[in-house]
Structures are given as C-alpha cells and as structure tokens.
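hey so i finally got around to running the thing on that chain from the lab meeting. sorry it took forever, my laptop kept dying and i had to restart like 3 times. anyway pasting the input first so we r on the same page abt which one it is
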Amino acid sequence: MNKLLIVGTVAFDSIETPNDSVEKILGGAATHISLSASLFNINSAIISIVGGDFPAEYFEIFKKRNIDISSLKIEKNGKTFFWIGKYAKNMNQRDTLKTEVNVLANFDPIVPEKYRSPNVIVLGNLDPIIQLKVMEQIIKPPTITILDTMNFWMGSTMENLKKIISQVDLICINDE
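ok and heres what got predicted. didnt touch it at all, straight out
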C-alpha cells in the first residue's frame, strides 16, 4: 500500500462567500489533503498540532477514514490555528481577514519511524524551517515530494525557502 505523509495545518476556518458563510468549521491543508487521499487506497498520516479546543467529533472524521492521526499533537492549554477569509464573487480571489497561528507557532514536527520512508510527502504551507525539519527525518527519498508555499514565506524566509525548494519535486504557489 502506498504511504502518504502529510505535514500541514489542521485548523478551524470561518469563510464568507457571496452566497453563504460558515463559522469555525474543520479546515486546514492537512485536513483537506488527507480526506481526499482517503478516497483511494492510500495509507496516509498527518503530522500537525491542534489545541485543547479541537472537538472530539473532528478526530472521529479522520479515524472513520482510516487516516493515521497518531502524530496529530494536542496542546491542551492552547488554541487551534484559526483562519478567517472572504471570497470574491468569482471565487478565484480571497482576502484573509484574520489568522490566529496559536499552537502552530511552537510546532516541532516529529516523523514516526513507520513514516520515514513514505512514497509521497506533502509539505503544507508552513514555515520552511518546519518543512526542513521534516525532510531531515526522512530515511529514504520518496517517489515525489510536494511543497506548498506562498508570498509570505518568500518575503520573510527566502533563504530557508530556497533550501527546502532544492529538496522537492513539485511546488504549489498561490498566484496572488
């Protein structure tokens, strides 16, 4: 069975669109990637962190889809990453209204032994230092490593971003 290692955000999102809005729903890149992968015969694991405010029913969503969340740390006294955004009428543009990094600010990823030789690694849109720490723990190079990044990291941590880019096969960059 293929192994997919996902390092990224498990978060709360509040989203406003021209037609509707939702408050504090399950979000984050690692969430969306893992739930999508669960539709196929892929053994996937999430490495991330949430706060003590993360509801038990959200953990159950991952468990029901056989997603390994044993490396989803819970910082009981902290708050989960929270993003608030508003989408334009065309749904191609969005504005970030608020970002609360919360427990993600102190996230130190530990890759479990059984995921140190994955077929695929997806490095979510995180600080390049975190992405580099993950790659340092990988024993066997994966078939493909995917990196997600954005202008924020380009403007604030370009040297570390260049280091992680040199270790990946595919880069996803927001065009805004």
